[in-house]
Each structure stands twice: as structure tokens, then as C-alpha cells.
Design a protein that fits this description.
Blueprint lengths: L2 E4 L15 H29 L5 E5 L12 H21 L5 E5 L20
Parallel strand pairs: 1-2, 2-3
The structure holds NADP nicotinamide-adenine-dinucleotide phosphate.
Length: 123
Amino acid sequence: MDLLVNNAGVQYSHCVTDLLDEDRSAALRTEIALNLEVPIRLTWSLIDRIARPGGAIVNVTSLTALHPKTSAPVYSATKAGLKSFTRALRLQVEPMGVYVMEAVPPLVDTAMTTGRGKGKISP
Ligand SMILES: NC(=O)c1ccc[n+]([C@@H]2O[C@H](COP(=O)([O-])OP(=O)(O)OC[C@H]3O[C@@H](n4cnc5c(N)ncnc54)[C@H](OP(=O)(O)O)[C@@H]3O)[C@@H](O)[C@H]2O)c1
């Protein structure tokens, strides 16, 4: 294995005064797991196969990691967490010759941003 790209992600809108019912709790679990826990677990599970000179890991974060979006506090927090994990991971595996990169897309016109934002670029 040469390359792991942690790209899958979801963004849900939340307001902390909303009722924390079953559906919202499930959404929170999915958002935190998919955006943060899964990239960490995939990296951990696959690092033995990637850890050699030229191996690479790309984590897709977001500008919301630095500038949180009011309507997406959980998404923003997961992306900030992934940014931090990426930086520490880079320090750990760079001596083995593994490249660890963070992709920070601008606002892109995908399913995730349907009905959100203006001035989107095409994928
Ligand atoms: N669009 C933007 O403006 C923007 C900006 C900054 C960062 N990002 C980041 O870019 C990445 C890609 O987002 P996108 O804009 O391309 O969104 P998208 O069109 O909604 O695509 C989301 C991707 O995540 C996968 N996915 C969703 N739920 C999953 C699950 N439970 N298990 C496995 N895979 C799942 C989807 O797979 P299926 O197609 O199989 O459902 C799809 O490939 C995300 O990490 C997002 O946070 C996007």
C-alpha cells in the first residue's frame, strides 16, 4: 500500500439548544466517528503497510478547523481534531520517510454543500 486518503466525511447542522433526542445523538456519533475516529483507526490499522520511504497519508480537513462554523460546531471540532492528529502523526512517521499531508479544500460544490454557501468551486 502506497497511499491512504482519509476523505470520507459528513457535516450536520446543530444548535446546542436543540433537543438531544435519539436521532440527534445518532447523528453526533456518526459525525464524530466518521470525521475523526475512523481516520485515526484506519491510520493505526494500516501504518505497518504504509511505513516505508515514499508511503503517504492524506487527511482531508477543512478551514472550519481554524475558523469554526457557527451552524456546524461538531463538524468544526472534528476537523480541528483531525488537523491536530495529522500534525502529531507527521512528527511520528516522518523519520520513516512517510509523507503526511493535510488537504484543506475551499468551499467545493459537492453533495455536502448542497444548499449551503456561495461562490463554490467545482470539484
Ligand atoms: N465540500 C466542501 O466544501 C468541503 C470543504 C472542506 C472539506 N471538505 C471535506 O472533504 C471531504 C469530502 O467531502 P465532499 O464535499 O466530497 O462531500 P460528499 O460529496 O458528501 O462526499 C462524502 C464522502 O464521504 C463518504 N461517506 C459518507 N458517509 C460515510 C460512511 N458512513 N461510511 C463511509 N463513507 C461515508 C461518501 O461515500 P458514498 O459516496 O459512498 O456515500 C462520500 O464519498 C470530507 O472530509 C469533507 O469534510 C469538503
